[in-house]
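Exercise 7b. Backbone tokens:
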């Protein structure tokens, strides 16, 4: 059996491996093309940081935190094939780690920002140990229960979390309250986070994880410990979701119970569906579309939830691979057709 290294459009990693392998030489002839796209995207984002006003920069800061949250969630969803409605727990824990560290122990922002992802990863271990004992719908319901439990705890423990009021305060350094400085700081954190997640996604661990998604029983028969691999993915996802929560604090300077709610966990799932779960940058593209679409709908439409639900329904019905996933599937289909017709030389153009 051969395991593929790429997942264009969410295609199978096992059964279609020979077809994908046959297209790799075309991609390898110009590897700089694959490396150029992220460089161009980062350069565009850097230029936007220099030319935009404060208001759109604050919106972009929010989007950058959501990009990390959606990509980390997709490690479970698109990589492992498990739907979690509990990633909002780690997002909220990241924000509360910074806020409560300042409120109760006067810890510096930089220390709590560094600790936040490790607190989220540590919390993901017991949650994952319990939730991953269940499968499919029951796993999703288990994570939903943990999300509701965290929300109720944050709201009811007023003396520690300030309850429904949340924690607000000047716990972010003055240098980061400047929209330009804060934006470039979050942009740097986002780039490093995406590089690390890309490395995980394309490591042997990531390949096995995707193979588990395609055929869990076959991988178990081959001797793969499915439970340990999914638990490791859950912990890694919790690490980066908590980092996204700490990034949220930079522009909002707040932490409140709604960050832990299941609705927060549902948002990155929507982003991954919009952008494409089978493409690494799909959730990132979905985060941009979701957030800017949400802002425009709230501004002009009273029942914006109905419109958003309709758009998501259309995407699921007509573009089940998401926008980038559909593009990748069409492109790889064209490459295979050119190869079959003898047009291999131009297949990477």
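Sequence design result:
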């Amino acid at each position: 059996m051969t395991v593929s290294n790429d997942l264009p459009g969410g295609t199978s990693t096992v059964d279609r491996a020979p077809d994908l392998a046959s297209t790799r030489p075309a991609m390898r002839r110009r590897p700089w093309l694959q490396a150029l796209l992220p460089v161009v995207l980062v350069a565009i984002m850097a230029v936007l940081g220099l030319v935009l006003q404060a208001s759109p920069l604050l919106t972009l800061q929010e989007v950058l935190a959501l990009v990390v949250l959606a990509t980390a969630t997709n490690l479970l969803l698109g990589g492992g094939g498990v739907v979690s409605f509990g990633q909002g727990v780690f997002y909220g824990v990241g924000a509360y780690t910074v806020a409560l560290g300042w409120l109760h122990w006067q810890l510096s922002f930089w220390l709590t920002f560094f600790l936040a992802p490790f607190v989220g990863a540590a919390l993901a271990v017991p949650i994952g140990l319990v939730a991953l004992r269940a499968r499919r719908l029951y796993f999703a319901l288990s994570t939903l229960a943990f999300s509701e439990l965290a929300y109720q705890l944050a709201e009811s423990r007023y003396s520690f979390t300030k309850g429904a009021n949340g924690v607000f305060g000047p716990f972010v350094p003055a240098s980061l309250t400047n929209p330009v400085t804060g934006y470039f700081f979050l942009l740097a954190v986002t780039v490093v986070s995406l590089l690390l997640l890309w490395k995980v996604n394309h490591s042997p661990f990531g390949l096995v994880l995707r193979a588990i998604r395609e055929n869990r029983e076959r991988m178990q028969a081959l001797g793969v410990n499915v439970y340990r691999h999914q638990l490791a993915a859950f912990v890694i996802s919790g690490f980066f979701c908590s980092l996204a929560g700490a990034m949220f604090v930079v522009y909002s300077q707040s932490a409140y119970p709604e960050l832990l709610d299941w609705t927060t966990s549902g948002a990155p799932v929507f982003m991954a569906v919009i952008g494409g779960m089978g493409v690494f940058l799909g959730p990132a593209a979905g985060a941009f579309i979701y957030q800017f679409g949400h802002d425009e709908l709230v501004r002009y439409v009273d029942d914006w939830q109905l419109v958003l639900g309709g758009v998501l329904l259309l995407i699921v019905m007509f573009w089940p691979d998401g926008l980038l996933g559909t593009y990748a599937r069409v492109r790889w289909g064209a490459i295979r057709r050119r190869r079959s017709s003898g047009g291999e030389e131009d297949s990477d153009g």
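Instructor comment: The chain is about 75% helix and 0% strand. Confidence is low (pLDDT under 50) at residues 1-27, 345-349.
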